[in-house]
């Protein structure tokens, strides 16, 4: 047995952070005085969360408790992260419930979709007060960054690095986590200001500009209008959205290279090259399908294909035209892009481009070796933002294990959703893939009338997609182990 710091302090600090974040939507009330009555719906859960966090920190033991030797730092961090994220779902749902916007189950779904940056919605945005529209987009912005990044900017702790990894961040782009958190927060804060300003200059209302920038950067997709970006019918606004979605779907470490003007090094990153290669191929295929099967001009097909392919490949979920009207071939392309997702170490969900790249490289090399037996062993490698790394057996084993588990979850989730909703297998697969990849595009299945069982299946998929499968399963296993241990005392 060995000692570690008190986990209660971790819970307390993160819960206080969530409480503070819940208070920020009140800042829009001075601009929309007619929504003054909704202040208490945010103030009560916010203050309650902060007080709960303080109580937990005060009552927490000052010294660490003994932990099992078999548990890795990641295993010990997974349970606190999982618990805090579920608390965030609950706390984020309370304002919807208190104001009568949604019932508890639908509020929980909307909150989970927000924090996990999924974007599936059961809310009528046309009738929703502005403060709740801001709340939804702000949850996505914060959920994309992650609670640990935000807390690491303010509080230094030995546990932060383990929590950072458990929250789905594979890279530390600076020597210390605190510097990493600060540079990421600074980058995204700058992108938020610039994106909002550009939207505003192109004719978007300032409130809409801020909300759409937050959602685009977090590759989330909540919008303030029922027709999403298609509401504006503006090419400059569409181009701005495409750029913001690409920023959100790009690895934090690559963004730092771009910020330092190391363009050549950023262009050499294998994942970046792979991303633009996929975008080019899928845009051309989708444009050809739209032009041939929907009687669009090739220019119109290109415009719709570029926006749709970028929105789906970055798991953002925005749209300028109804994807359900797309031909089956083009919809199939979108499903493939949803499953692959964006870059590792970004706000995007999905299998991740880095894993897909490694699978293709290893598979291609294996086929090549069978067709043309080599006299010497070929060592594969790839370029990351930190430099060249070998594609060794350990990396291949880890990635293929994840891909296998991802496929298993996708199949099981599709069957469960079809069972609980009564919809066709294709519709269930499309919707579950959208939730698991945190893309948020719906084929009409997600609505306020969806059975509770289906809502739960989709919410669990969102959690798996945001925190990644292993982290969630490790956290659940750690919780079960802890309960068993207490039961035997």
Strands, helices and their partners?
Layout lengths: L1 E2 L3 H17 L15 H21 L6 E2 L5 H26 L5 H12 L14 H16 L1 H8 L5 H7 L10 H25 L4 H12 L17 H14 L3 H8 L3 H5 L2 H24 L4 H16 L14 H13 L12 H19 L9 E4 L2 E4 L2 H29 L3 H12 L15 H16 L1 H19 L2
Antiparallel strand pairs: 1-2, 3-4
Helix pairs in contact: 1-2, 1-3, 1-6, 2-3, 3-4, 3-7, 3-20, 4-5, 4-19, 5-9, 6-8, 8-9, 8-10, 9-10, 10-14, 13-14, 14-15, 16-17, 17-18, 17-19, 18-19, 19-20
Describe what you observe in this structure:
The structure is a single chain. The chain has 489 residues and is an all-alpha fold. 65% of the residues lie in helices and 2% in strands. The chain has helices spanning 7-23, 39-59, 73-98, 104-115, 130-145, 147-154, 160-166, 177-201, 206-217, 235-248, 252-259, 263-267, 270-293, 298-313, 328-340, 353-371, 393-421, 425-436, 452-467, 469-487, and strands spanning 2-3, 66-67, 381-384, 387-390. The strands form two sheets. A two-stranded antiparallel ribbon has the order 1-2. Strand 3 and strand 4 (387-390) form a beta hairpin. Helix 10 (235-248) packs parallel to helix 14 (298-313) and helix 19 (452-467) packs across helix 20 (469-487). The longest helix is centred in the C-terminal third of the chain and has 29 residues, at 393-421. The two termini are 17 Å apart.
């Amino acid at each position: 047995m060995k000692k570690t710091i008190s986990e209660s302090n971790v819970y307390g600090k993160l819960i206080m952070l969530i409480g503070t974040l819940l208070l920020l939507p009140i800042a829009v009330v001075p601009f929309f005085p007619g929504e003054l009555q909704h202040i208490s719906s945010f103030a009560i859960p916010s203050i309650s969360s902060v007080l709960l966090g303080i109580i937990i920190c005060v009552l927490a033991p000052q010294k660490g408790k003994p932990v099992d030797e078999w548990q890795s730092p990641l295993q010990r961090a997974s349970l606190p992260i999982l618990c805090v994220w579920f608390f965030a779902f609950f706390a984020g749902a309370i304002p919807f419930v208190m104001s009568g916007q949604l019932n508890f189950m639908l509020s929980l779904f909307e909150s989970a979709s927000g924090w996990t940056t999924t974007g599936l919605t059961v809310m009528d945005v046309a009738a929703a007060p502005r403060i709740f529209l801001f709340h939804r987009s702000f949850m996505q912005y914060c959920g994309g960054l992650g609670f640990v990044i935000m807390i690491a900017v303010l509080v230094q702790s030995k546990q932060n690095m383990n929590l950072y990894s458990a929250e789905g961040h594979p890279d530390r782009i600076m020597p210390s986590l605190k510097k990493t958190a600060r540079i990421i927060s600074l980058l995204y804060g700058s992108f938020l200001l610039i994106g909002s300003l550009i939207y505003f200059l192109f004719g978007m209302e300032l409130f809409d500009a801020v909300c759409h920038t937050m959602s685009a950067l977090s590759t989330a997709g909540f919008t303030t209008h029922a027709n999403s970006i298609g509401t504006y019918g503006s090419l400059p606004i569409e181009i701005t959205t495409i750029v913001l979605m690409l920023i959100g779907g790009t690895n934090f470490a690559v963004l730092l290279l771009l910020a330092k003007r190391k363009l050549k090094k950023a262009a050499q990153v294998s994942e970046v090259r792979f991303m633009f290669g996929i975008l080019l191929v899928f845009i051309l295929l989708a444009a050809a399908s739209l032009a041939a099967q929907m009687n669009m001009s090739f220019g119109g097909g290109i415009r719709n294909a570029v926006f749709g392919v970028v929105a789906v490949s970055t798991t953002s979920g925005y749209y300028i035209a109804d994807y359900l009207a797309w031909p089956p071939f083009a919809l199939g392309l979108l499903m493939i892009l949803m499953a692959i997702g964006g870059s590792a170490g970004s706000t995007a969900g999905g299998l991740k481009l880095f894993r897909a790249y490694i699978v293709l490289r290893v598979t291609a090399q294996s086929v090549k070796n069978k067709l043309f037996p080599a006299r010497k062993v070929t060592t594969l490698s790839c370029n990351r933002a930190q430099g060249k790394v070998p594609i060794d057996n350990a990396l291949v084993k880890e990635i293929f294990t994840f891909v296998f588990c991802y496929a298993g979850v996708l199949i099981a989730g599709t069957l469960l959703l079809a069972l609980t909703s009564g919809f066709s297998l294709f519709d269930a697969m499309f919707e579950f893939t959208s939730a698991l990849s945190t893309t948020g595009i719906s084929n009409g299945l997600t609505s306020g009338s969806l059975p509770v069982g289906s809502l739960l299946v989709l919410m669990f998929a969102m959690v798996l997609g945001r925190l990644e499968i292993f982290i969630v399963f490790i956290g659940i296993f750690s919780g079960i182990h802890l309960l068993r241990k207490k039961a035997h005392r």
